[in-house]
Amino acid sequence: MRIVIFGANGRTGRLVTRLALEHGHHAVAVTRRPNEFPFTDHRLTVAGGDVRDPSSLTGILDGADAVLSSLGVPFSLRRLDTYSVGAANIIGAMRDTDVRRVAVVSSTGAYPYPNRIDPPAALRFVEPVITRTIGKSTYDDQRRMEDVVRGSGLNWTIVRPSGLFDLPKPTNYVAGDVDPVGGYTARIDLADYLVTLAADSSCAGKTVVVSTTKDTPTMWQMIRREAFSTA
Ligand SMILES: NC(=O)c1ccc[n+]([C@@H]2O[C@H](COP(=O)([O-])OP(=O)(O)OC[C@H]3O[C@@H](n4cnc5c(N)ncnc54)[C@H](OP(=O)(O)O)[C@@H]3O)[C@@H](O)[C@H]2O)c1
After folding, report:
1. Atom of ligand 1 nearest to the CA of 36
2. Does the pLDDT of residue 154 top 60, yes or no?
3. In what order do the strands lie in the sheet with 101-105?
4. Kind and range of the H or E element at 154?
5. DSSP-based three-state secondary structure for 203
6. Which of 37, 48, 110, 224 could form a Cys-Cys staple with 142, CB 3.0–4.6 A?
7. Phi first, then psi: what are they for 165, rounded to 5°?
8. What is the overall mean pLDDT for the chain?
9. Using one digit for the tens of pLDDT, what is the confidence trace for 17-73?
């Protein structure tokens, strides 16, 4: 398959790109910083593109079989719209090129899950604070993005991970149209699931979760690591 990856130069996106190549696919990595993309491969095309600028997406989706998006922007107290504007522009480019399959990353924070299985104790206190303060504009825009994707008429899947952290290789993660388990998702598990979804339409038209249940950090370890890490 030829898979176009938006957010490809991000922490999840690089893993998605690597796994797509390892699974034998052709990958088109879309980034605003093509010169900084960290690896090459004979089946990899690195394309410069800004999802906020539809003209920059021209030609990028030609011949694609599926689109995966793990693009994201940092939390901000200002109004954000890159998720929703970006999704609308990606969908527009897909329509122009007759590409039908798309899976986009949202977040369980956008629609908190009251029936989450085995939530970390601290999540009960941390999540409401984040969703009402520093995360509010992100989650508002992710909800708008989800509406855009649901209304697209495409073969879509929305993927909601929980708190992202890093592990070296995929685990036996829980994924699908189920309640999340615990409070975390390893980026490598999210990436593995996205690459699976590119070729698997059984979750088309569904909003799904992906949860890592092994080797997870504590809430405080995760906040510390994520606060001081860079892409
Ligand atoms: N952190 C968490 O705990 C958490 C929890 C649930 C869900 N999520 C979601 O998971 C996703 C992946 O997270 P991550 O930490 O792997 O992301 P990340 O490292 O922040 O990467 C996101 C990438 O999006 C790209 N991007 C941003 N604006 C763009 C634009 N206008 N045009 C094109 N590309 C653009 C950037 O690439 P370039 O700068 O190279 O263009 C960036 O590398 C995000 O959607 C995030 O909201 C995160």
Report:
1. 40
2. yes
3. 44-48, 26-31, 2-6, 66-69, 101-105, 155-161, 206-211, 174-176
4. none
5. helix
6. 110
7. -145, 175
8. 95
9. 999 999 999 999 999 999 999 999 999 999 999 999 999 999 999 999 999 999 999
Tell me the CA–centroid distance for residue 73 and ligand 1, in Å: 5
Q: Report residue 10 as tokens.
A: 């991000």
- Distance separating alpha carbons of residues 4 and 25, to the nearest angstrom: 10
According to DSSP, the β-strands at 26-31 and 44-48 are parallel
Q: What CA–CA distances, in Å, run from 109 to 6, 24, 73, 96, 196? A: 21, 33, 15, 32, 23
Read off the tokens for 47. Answer: 């394309």
Quote the tokens at residue 122.
């601290």
The tokens describing 206, both together, are: 């569904």
Q: Which of 6, 11, 12 to mutate to test the pocket of ligand 1 (most atoms within 8 A of CB)?
A: 12
Amino acid code (one letter) for 212? T
Q: Whose CA is nearest to atom 44 of ligand 1?
A: 72
